[in-house]
Amino acid sequence: MDLTAADQVDQKASAAPPQQSHRLMFRLLREYVRPHAGRLLWAALFMAVVAATTGLNAWLLEPAIDKIFVSQEPGMLFLVPLVLVVVACLRGGATYLQSILMHGVGQRIIAETQVRIYRHLIRADLAYLQSIHSGKLLSSFLYDANLLRDAVGRAITGIVKDALTALVLGVVMFVQDWQLALVVVVIFPLVGVLIRKLGKRMRKVSTATQEETGKLASQLSETLDGARLVKAYGMEDGETERIRARIEQRLKEIMRGIRTRSAATPLTEALGGVAVALAIFYGGWRAQTGVLSLGEFMSFLAALLMAYQPLKGLASLNTALQEGLAAAQRIFAILDVRPAIVDALDANALSVTHGGVIFKDVAFSYGENTPALKGIELSVKPGSTVALVGPSGSGKTTLLNLLPRFYDPSRGRIEIDGQDIRAVTMDSLRGSVALVSQDITLFDDTVTANIAYGRAGAGPD
């Protein structure tokens, strides 16, 4: 079975073997994270400040209870509240700065990704661009770029912040009572298993949702472009039902994603409830035996409760990361398609002296089973005017598309003034060919810019 370029891209994007996740993550970090390493390091520093101040808040409960309410030391009545205010200010400032940095990086990633996709597509082979529907490309251009931003700007860095916070709070728990901490942390591996399972499911759902988004965009583009034909045959209701079915299918995938994301919070809450119950039971027993003070237990309990907030965050952020990895895989599938029509390594600039054009035994096929031209022999003398006449589909447009190398012939050669066009640079070749298309295209620019299109710096004359 023959596959078009679009089929190859779709297969490459939809296949998501788990063993490729690490390579995909490494490429994502190399191509999208490393260029912003400076800002990300500053953001990580502020995240560390947020994590440290969160743990300090939990630890300060011990002196607040034991020194102020139990021992009733006058000096602590002013010192502890003052320290809490300073810690709160530090935490608020660090949170603000890391948020600004990460949003800036996220928006920059969107812009750079979209420019990169566009630059790649506009330089791609015409055969590739015509084999894949523009709706799918637009979907990747707009939708996947945003998911990639969330993966880098929110998920990866958010995971770092929440992991640091959970680590610091875990240290506080072990400092207060390591035996009680050991009883509680048995729940943590279960949270890790939950995060992993939800992440895998979210990756699949995200891929299916994007596929449906691309199909919807393609269908919308087709019907709106062909609105005259739809009206001529009275198919408004029929096309509306087709769109309704496509939207319903996309909604089905979106709801699957919502259910997967929403599952993270209640499951983590349930595990957190078990951990708190264990802490109260075992900690209460130790307090009754006089081993654990009220201040130490309250500090421990506060650290435990605070720790489950970043753990819940890790569960939800991992789903965002998996969506971003799925988007990255689709974007890389587009970016990895290399043009087949390129300059030869030893290509020279085309030198036009007279302008004679010769087609020698030229053949061309759209794919292996769709021949369009065979054994074309044609000589156009310099200065002459030649008209190609024939029925629709006979290959007139195809023949002319070979001259500026929009396509390359499968056999034979084309010469301009004795020079094989595959042996000259495409810039010099296309700079020597004027194209007047039967399809009218006006760009969203001034009339002057449209007239002078392709001639940078052209004057009014």
From TrEMBL:
Nucleotide-binding in keyword set: no
SUPFAM superfamilies: ABC transporter transmembrane region, P-loop containing nucleoside triphosphate hydrolases
Domain annotation ABC transmembrane type-1: ranges: 41-323
Residues spanning the membrane: 40-61, 76-97, 151-172, 178-195, 263-285
A GO-annotated cellular component: membrane
One GO molecular-function entry: ATP binding
InterPro entries reported for this sequence: ABC1_TM_dom (IPR011527), ABC1_TM_sf (IPR036640), ABC_transporter-like_ATP-bd (IPR003439), P-loop_NTPase (IPR027417), Type_1_exporter (IPR039421)
Subcellular locations according to the entry: Membrane
Keyword Transcription regulation: no
Bilayer topology annotation: Multi-pass membrane protein
Assigned keywords, A-Z: Membrane, Transmembrane, Transmembrane helix
Main location as per UniProt: membrane
PANTHER family assigned: ATP-BINDING CASSETTE SUB-FAMILY B, ATP-BINDING CASSETTE SUB-FAMILY B MEMBER 6
Listed name of the protein: ABC transmembrane type-1 domain-containing protein
Organism, as annotated: marine metagenome
